[in-house]
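User: I've been going back and forth on whether these two constructs are worth ordering. Before I decide, could you fold them both?

Assistant: Sure. I'll take them in the order you sent them. The first construct and its C-alpha cells:
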Amino acid sequence: MLCRTLAGDEVFCYGQSVVVKFAGKRYVISTGPINGGYHENLTSVFNHDLNPPEGMPKVLRAPTYEEHMILVAKDLGLDPKRTSGLGTSVPMENVSVKQAEDKGLEVTAIATAGVEINAGRAGDPAAYDERYLANEGESGTINIILLISAKLTPGALARSLITITEAKTAALQELMIDSRYSSGLATGTGTDGIIAVSNAESDIVLTNAGKHTRLGELIGKTVKDAVKEALFKQAGICANSQHSLLRRWRRYGLTAESLWQQYSRREDPKKVDRQMFLRKMDIWDQNEALVVYGTLYLHLLDQFEWDLIHLPAAKKAALTILEKLQQDFSLNCKWPQLSDEKSFLAWAVSCFTELLCQLFKFEI
C-alpha cells in the first residue's frame, strides 16, 4: 500500500496501475475516458500505464480508448460502472504521493508526469482535429489524482480543478519546461488528466477551493511538489538538470546538433572537429555566465513575443546582454543586420548562435 488517507481511503500500486479504493461515499470529478464528469456513486479511481509488455506492440485491446480502459478496470477487479481512470505512458514505479494536513483538513496528491515528448503551451498549434480524426495518443502526460478529506460542494470540487491545473503549470514554470510545439514555455502536455475526490461523509464542509483559501494553499503545495517529484522520477528533471543552456534554449531550436551544423559551415582553418566540439559544448552548456545571461536573453524574447516590450527597447537590451558576454569572453562577434520588427526573434536567435560559435576558438 502506498498510503492511507485521513478519510480511510487506501492507495495501492498493482503492477501497471495505481488504484485508490474509497472507504465510504465520495464525490468525484474526473477527466477520465470512463465515467468522466461529476459522480457521487463511484467506489474507486485509478491511474494506468498503457505501455504493453516489453517487445509487444502498443495497441488498444478494444475499438475505442474508453472500451480499452473498461477492460483495464475489469482486470483490476473494479466495477467499470463505479470507477474512473486515467491513462499514461509513465510507469507507475515513478508515481509521487504527497500529503499535507491542517487541523483535520488533509489533501493527498498522487501524480505521474512525463513531458519530454508532448509538453505544450496553451494555444500551441493543434496536433489533430477530433471532428475528422479521433485518435489521441497518451505520450508523456501529467496525471493527477487529488484526494480531499473534506466535503466539498459540487462547485468547490469543480473549482479545485483550476487550482490543481495552476499548481501543475507553476511546477513546469519553475523548472522552465519548454513546449515541444512552439518557442513558449510549457503549461502542461496535450494529454493531461485530473481526478479530484471529496469525502462526502466529512463534517468539514467547504464551498471554495481557490488560491485564497487554506484548502487551495494545501492543494497548490501538494500538487506542485508531487508533479516536480514525478518529473524527477520519470526523467531526472530537477533544478540541477535544468541548469543547462541547451535545455533552456531548446524551444528556439538551439541544440548541440544545430550548433554543430552552423559551426561546421564556418570558414575557419582552426575549426575543431565534431568530437572536440561536442566535448566543449558539454562544458559551455553548464557555464554559469552563459546559463544566467542566456536565460535573461530568453526572457527578453518572451517579453517581446508577449508584446510587453517593443522593438527599440528589445533590440537595445539584447545588444546589452550580447556585448556583456562578448566582453566577458573576449570575443569579436559581428552581429547580423536587423531588417524589420517581424524578424527580431530570428535576428536575436542568430546573434546568440553567432556568439556561441565564437566560443569554440578557445581552449578549455
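The second construct, handled the same way:
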Amino acid sequence: MATAQFSGLASGIDSASLIQALVDSRNKTNEIRRADIDFLESENEALDELNTKILALNDLLDKFRTANGGGVSKKSSSSDSSVATAAVSSAANNAAFTVTATSVASTATASYNDAYALTTTAFAANAVGTQTIGVDIGTGADLVSVDVDITSATTVQEYVDAFNANSNASGRAVASIVNVGTTATPSYRVVVASLKEGTELGTIAFDVPTSGAGFGGNSDLQTRTTDQATNAVFSVSGITGTITRSTNAVSDVFSGVTLQMSKVGTADITVSDDADTTGDLFQEIVDGYNDIVEFVAENDQISRTEEGGEIVNTFGSLAKTRLDNEFLARVRLAISEADAPSGTSVTSFSELGISTNRDGTLAFDLDAFKTKLSGDPVGATELFRNFADSAAGISGFLYEYTKFDGFIDVSQEANNTQIESLNDKIEALERNTDTMRRGLEAQFARLETITARFQATQAQLSGILAGLG
C-alpha cells in the first residue's frame, strides 16, 4: 500500500535542548568576562595591600630624611638624672657639657588666710553690696584676669565654682578648697594654683577691694600667702652667663637636644652616637622592604595545570601588571645609587653589611652594620639621608606610587574602567540572549504547529490512497 512521506518534518524535536545549547554557548563568553572581572578585582585588592606596605616603608624611611634631621640616632647620659637629663634626636651633635641649675621653673600657689568651718560658710560675710574679687595670672602680654563677683551671701564653695567656671581660668589656674584642720574640727582655706610654669604664665597676683572700701572696715580676704612661680635659671659650661627659661623643658639651647631640669644642682650631660638604636631602625626598613619583595613574589606566580587534556594557566593577583616589579627595581636602583661622598669607610650600603639575596630580598648583617657605623658616623648619616631623601616624603619616588593619581591609583582606575566595560558587555549579551531565546522558542512553536498540520495532512492522504487501493 502506497503512503505519503514528508522528509525532514518528523515530530519529537527537542527544541528546549537545542535552544539551551545555543544559550550555553553564548554564556561561555560571559563566563570568561566574569572571570576577567574577578581577576581585575583581585588585582585591585593586591594593589591596595601593596600601597599599604609602601606607605609603611615610607614612614620608616621618613625618619632618616634630611628635613627631619635624619641620620645616625643619638643617645644621652647624665651624671645626675635627678638634676637634669637630655632627650636627643639624630640632629644633635656629639658633645659633653655641664649644666648647673640655680633655679627650676615652677607654678605658683596662693591662698587666702581666711579660715572657714564649713564650705557653705560665707566667703566674705562683710562684703558691702557686690564686690569683684580679681586674681591675675601671668604677666605682660600673657596676663589674664579671673574676676568673680560676690556678695555677703556667696559661700566658699560658690566662689570656688565660679572661679573655675571663668573662661580666663581655663588652662591657666584652678581654685580648690583645702582642709588644714582635722576631720572633727575642719578649717578650710581657698587655694588658687597656676597651671603653667614660669613667671610669664604662672605668676599669681590678687586684686581685692580694700577693707574699708569693700568690707566695711573688716579684714575679709585682706591677707594672703603666695608661693610665687619661678623660671628655670641655669648655666652651661663653655657658655658665658646664665640662661633663663619659663619651662624646665629647654629645647632651644642645643640643636636636637631638649634639656629637662628637675632640681637645683649640677649634672654632666653627654651626647653620643647610638649604633644600637640606628641598627634596630634600619632592621625595620630592611624587614619592610623584604615583606614587599615576598608579597610581590607570592602574587606574581603563574601556575600551570592540565584539565581535560588542556593546559590551564592560573595567574597570581599581580602577575599581569608590571607596576610591582617596576617599584622593586626603583628601590634597588636607589639603594645602589645612594652614596656618601664625605664618608671615609662608609660610602655605600654594601659597606654597611647590606647585600641582596638571590630571591631579591636584602640580607642585613646587624653586627657589621654597627661596627661600620661607629667607625664612620658622618658617612653613615650622609648615606642614610641621601637614600631617604630620594625615596621618602612628597618629593621621593615612593610618593609617586601612593599619591592620588599616582601609579597605583591610575592602575586601579584603569581596572575599574575595564570592569565597568565588561559588566556592560555582560548585560548587553544577556539581553541579546534573552531576545534570541524568545525568538527561537517562537520559531520552534510555529514549526511544531506546521509539523502537526503536515502530519494531519499526511494521515488524510494516506487514508485516501488506501481507499483507492
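Notes on the second construct follow. Residues 1-11 have pLDDT under 50 and may be disordered. The radius of gyration is 43 Å.
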